[in-house]
User: Fold these one by one.
Assistant:
Number 1:
Amino acid sequence: MAKILVTGGLGFIGSHTVVELVNAGYEPVIVDDLSNSQLAILDQLNTIIGHKPAFYQLDLTLETDVQTLALAEPEIEGIIHFAAFKAVGESVDLPLKYYRNNFYSLINLLNAYYSKPVNFVFSSSCTVYGQPEKLPVTEDAPVQPAQSPYGNTKQICEEILQDMIASGGSKYKVISLRYFNPVGAHESALIGELPIGVPQNLVPFITQSAIGKRGPITVFGSDYNTPDGSAIRDYIHVVDLAKAHVAALKLAAKESFTGYDMFNLGTGKGSSVLEVINAFEQSTGVKLDYKIGPRRAGDVEQVWGDVTKSAEKLGWKTELGIDVMMSSAWKWEKYIAQNPLN
Ligand code: WQD
């Protein structure tokens, strides 16, 4: 079985990808520093996939730790690099924390496996597009000046990977996946998103508000140039997103694939904040309490992805709609309220 290193494999997207890797016949090897995840997710994965995956708790920013990892796991076919700090607001307050973590970990990993033929999948973000001029946005749209140090790390990490491939010195093949807005949870409700503190993202705030952990939801802006005035995003179910990583590994493994490529991971369809709130109410039967507030600094008005290239080259498209995104996120919120993991 081909071994795949999954950094950040106990996190939200990482844990769902571990499940899909096993479903596809791969052997995931998880690396995580537990800075934004729980060890208990390993047990949850055990329940879903029937065994505990290999796990290394280590800090990828420490070069010696990563080299030790490469010695312990020399035979890997792929790396899916999720591990990164991702809170936009925190990155504005603590830029060095973000630059240190997100750059050191990428560079240490690349160095550790530099001489090996490894297929490398990088977690990037639609944040690189800023507010695109044309919607849906395609992969060849210009990368815009970053709105936050977090967004900047995604842009620069993409550049680091492209420069490394252009240099021709390594045996890597690299695919960057530009995520739109991942939401939802596994159908088992055994894994899902575990935000630290007050959720900054819309869907975890909705589910926590619905269960009574938070007050009413604030809709950030109702005066955007959109049909209902609230901002539009391309929400994608995390299980669909996870499956795209398996598709990316398969594409990179082909002899015909060389070098570097990047793909949008979205549904190709935008939903406004008010539409998301409505979809939650419709699919769960739970009424939400919300109010309209001012715009949030740094937010773009509307963005959704063109997924033609992903469909053609990755042979992947989403299967789960906004209703399943909402109902699965809600099922997870209720599960975690009954079964706290920490
Ligand atoms: C979605 C929409 C908000 C909360 C961010 C990062 C991005 C990516 C994912 C990840 C926006 C509105 C939100 C609330 C609201 N990074 N909203 N009330 O901002 O599109 O993307 O997370 O690792 O890089 O920028 O996602 O979920 O925060 O917001 O009205 O309480 O919901 O204004 O329009 P966003 P989000």
Number 2:
Amino acid sequence: MSTFITLSTGQKMPTVGLGTWKSAPGQVKQAVLAALDCGYTHLDCAAAYGNEQEVGEALALRLGAGKTLRREEVFVTSKLWNTKHEPQDVEEACRSSLTHLGLAYLDLYLMHWPMAFQRGKELMPRREDGSIRYSDTHYRDTWVAMESLVDKGLVRAIGLSNFNARQTGDIVGMAKHRPVVNQVECHPYLSQTHLLSYCQSTAVCVTAYSPLGSGDRPWASARDPSVLQDPRLGAVAQRYQKTPAQILLRWQVQRGVACIPKSVTPSRIQQNLQVFDFCLSNDDMKLISSFNRNERFIIPTVERDGKKVWRDAE
Ligand code: A2P
């Protein structure tokens, strides 16, 4: 099983990368250093995570002449936030991520969500009643602006995040530069089978975020189901002499899905990359897939006219 996925541009994206969402400033630099030092060559970042500057500090210590890694050996992704969807805001947003990360180009730049918020500096612009202020900018217009980032050499490829199959098809149908990736929440409780087969049929790689079930999401409750602690998963892990996290990641790798587990714990960071020295049987792949319950942990908490604006990706 290869340790990378070849994207439609020909770029080789390492199948397992380090996720940085929820990695607090003060923790993320050490996490990135631990990852780079134990063999990770794929980092997943976003302007909205508020920690790109610190990720950049770690990159500066390891990338470049006389250091351990060359720029071209590391695959770095960032994402355009919802308040930057107006076409005239896109390049500046990308340049800001590049400055924070200390890079001349990104390997991949994703549209973080299909919906646009009112432009401005506030991450989550809200009305007095707490509801989100949307903008009518369509993701197709944002995409065209993202395409010019490829033409200018600021990014090697562009892609999507949190897009459902219909929205992905919308972009595929109009794109000059095709989306190479759609990054979505994905784990055995939300197996995304339909979206995955659609994306695979059109050469869009799926990357799983929250592949371990995102137990540290800020709104998690003790009553929520935990995929990592599912006893059926524990039983599989025991049989393979692996940890439950490694089984969750291996399941994704074997179905052709890239994943970006987040951790700030060096031993876990290391463990999460060690998923290429064993193989799950077809029966175990099916067993883990059967855990699906369409359970979405990362639900956009935003509403318009009392209704959720964004439908499930399935
Ligand atoms: P921590 O960062 O404290 O190590 P996800 O990638 O699905 O968002 O999950 C992230 C959560 O999973 C974090 O709470 C992270 O904790 C935890 N985690 C990461 N790797 C492992 C692992 N190998 N075993 C158990 N928990 C893990």
Number 3:
Amino acid sequence: GSRAADRTVDSVCPYCGVGCQITYHVRNDEIAFVSGRNGPANENRLCVKGRFGFDYVRSPQRLTRPLIRKEGAPKTDAVTAIDPRNPWTHFREATWEEALDLAARGLREIRDRDGRRALAGFGSAKCSNEEAYLFQKLVRTGFGSNNVDHCTRLCHASSVAALMEGIGTGAVTAPFNEALNADVVIVIGANPTVNHPVAATYFKQAAKRGTKLVVMDPRKQNGLARYASHYLQFKPGTDVAMLNAIMHVIVAEGLYDTQYVQAHTDGFEQLEAHLASFTPEAMEPVCGIPAATLREVARLFARAERAMVFWGMGVSQHVHGTDNARCLISLVMMCGHVGRPGTGLHPLRGQNNVQGASDAGLIPMVFPDYHSVKDPNYRAMLESLWGTQLDPEPGLTVVEIIDAIHAGKIKGMYIMGENPAMSDPDASHAREALAELEHLVVQDIFLTETAMYADVVLPASAWPEKDGTVTNTNRQVQMGRKALPLPGDARPDWWIIQEIARRIGLPWHYTGPADVFAEMTLAMPSLANITWERLMRESAVTYPCPAPDQPGQGVVFTDGVFPTPDGRAKLVPADIVPPAEQPDADFPWILTTGRTLEHWHTGAMTRRAASLDALEPEAFVTVNSKDLRRLGLKAGDRVRVSTRRGVIELMARQDNSVPEGVLFIPFCFVEAAANVLTNPQLDPYGKIPEFKFCAARLEPL
Ligand code: SF4
């Protein structure tokens, strides 16, 4: 029949951090269809993106030749001035030789003239581990500084800051499938039926089997609400008040695990004293949850034999994101809910390889495996492995790099597979910075909004066109295999990075991703007993892995010993820090942003996937029906939403998942980019911006 395939290739879904294993069914070098495979994270299940989201690969808008900006073509307002289907107003085609020479020369000249800190790079959580590793190595050894970051900064940087401080590692303590073994599961600030759909199926399955599911979210999610025993729709930005009140009850009623606290934690007494004033009665008016409910949930969680906590961007994307995560760590630790089946802390990772890209070192303050750039021992090891001196000073983060461009300190950038013109807070400010750069090299599969500001655009590989490993939210390192030829003159990302590296003076001779992975195992103890050959054979191995013939360890810290300086988990009290911008007379609404089921992040892939775009074709803002009525609006009317940073126009969608006074806008629509509106204020520890809360105005059009 028309769906018959002439070959199949086993790989991993390119979208979310769940890491579903898939099989491509290929006919005439096209993906005819995709089926779910029996991977450890998905057991044959797939969501709509993994099943139907692949035609972006053959989009007519794919970049197939290197592009060079035409002499004198203006960079300002590139996003509105350039039509991605007809970029010839601003760009011309070039050979690889010319494009690579120009790309590298611009970077080299800035480095030699203005110093190594005048350059920066953004890598990508959508590329493989090998590509992430090569990219950060290029920045650290070729540019000469640690100015390398990626979208983890915009997603779980605060969670990682809290986890590193609390338990000495940024990764999850147990895979999400352990929800099936838990008596109680808390899901807070995450909307997994939309953003981690296959993980959500495990939460639903657990709930059906009797696990108590407690969902905490300022939005009433349609997906998990039906399965929840308790739904705490707290006021936006009041996480710490609510969580401290729950912990207050656990401490005051003596429900915590005394033995665990004594044997394995530090700081309980300070935390206990700190929590004294956070009574449920005092916190009820702050967070909007009845004191009785807070008490009930506290008792449920503490008395459970096994309980787990999952969280997402609703926790992390605040100026108090690190404090929110600190509360979750303290909550789990004081109850001893870690290190056993059905227990643990699990920040749900967003992108398919955000865990792996972070592990591989796309972070400005740490080398691969989270060793501080200030750690002289690891740095010396890396210097001998890489054969060069390394900068002991932490580099700048995503938002800091944008500010440093405005300040004239950073003059050149290399961006691989990221789209800050859409994903950064206060996007107009970010776009102005991209336009100000003296030299910008962008490597991507589409002429993204960011590539529109580039001097040189390098056409790269889509996930089904290359071999490489990725690491999912469960710490499972998985093998992705090449199924399709590259279109036109596009090249694998690892090859492009190496060509740039050679042209700025690095003696690189990698023969392919397997070669790079072999070097990574030398730099990264976390990959012990995991080899390329093994991944080719087994498709997935979890780290840490104790032996070459053993599966990796899903649940960690079984002995209660943490990789902190004294081996104990640190409990850190958190105070209430209000959101950086409060609604007022001019901007009376609360605006929050996020994703949709059909569109992935900035929409670069999914808006070019025909079936997904047909399902969700138009920019929208969700508004409560009472608010719509009050304003004399009806569903589908066009409205204007503005903040102190910008204004967009889009369709109002009636949706009572948002409470009155709150607006929600997905950030994937370029024609009404939510991030033109968002607040770039940063969490002081994780340096993550406050995407989840700012003051806005809504007007009928
Ligand atoms: Fe892909 Fe995530 Fe959907 Fe699985 S749940 S198919 S990994 S998008």
Number 4:
Amino acid sequence: MTTAPERTADLYPTRGATEVATPRQDPVVWSEPGTPGPFSGDELGSFERDGFAAIDQLITPEEVATYRAELDRLVTDPGVRADERSVVEPRSGEIRSVFEVHRISDVFAGLVRDPRVVDRARQILGSDVYVHQSRINVKPGFGASGFYWHSDFETWHAEDGLSRMRTVSVSIALTENYDTNGGLMIMPGSHLTFLGCAGETPEDNYKKSLQMQDAGIPSDEALTGFADRHGIHLFTGKAGSATWFDCNCMHGSGDNITPYPRSNVFIVFNSVENTAVEPFAAPVRRPSFIGARDFTPVS
Ligand code: 6CS
Ligand code: FE
């Protein structure tokens, strides 16, 4: 059992009696300007400004086919379905997500180590990185539910013990993301304000929050203010496209009532300088398949 180091001061208070906004106290791009890597200077600039960078084609159509086949294999494997790392859709009972997919599947483990992926994470985070969380999201058609507005960092700080905003996610589309089938929406620039949410974290919150999050949800007033200030950007793109986004972006996605699945693989890289300590606002840690406690750098 790894013992987490002593917790540092809490720069981002959340899940107290009232909602409280705190200006970001961390860089967005941690590497020095001009640091070589797959992102161009302009791409890093827009990542800094907006909190995200979209790539039209990160992986080839042939590679998409390989990952889609692997996703289909996993979601039809009874062993995977029975695994606690699988989360099902509240309505249909179909598989919604499979967590720790980079440990379950050698195919997805290869994607994590791919230089087009991990070198971008290192470039943004300015250090070696490890996987804090990975998952495939199936988001089948005909009613798959979305994810309400939230900041991932708010959860990863409160429940997984990530101290600083030195974490980046990449969502790689494995099916076409239309403007109708429940695509990712991000409020550009929202990553520069941390919105501490009101309301304590229930015991075993993750058992519910991964289907329908309720702790760590911003108020309507706060969301209205964010949306008025930042707008809302909807990401569309072909299979193989990718969206890199900062851990503190306010984001969400709608239900998918079309016949067309919106499947992606979602990988969260954390800096090895920001390893998880004790949760800042939860009674206990979440399981390691959701918030990693093995900090071995990706190599
Ligand atoms: O709780 C989490 O860690 C997950 N929940 C959502 C809605 N997004 C981030 C993350 O995968
Ligand atoms: Fe999220």
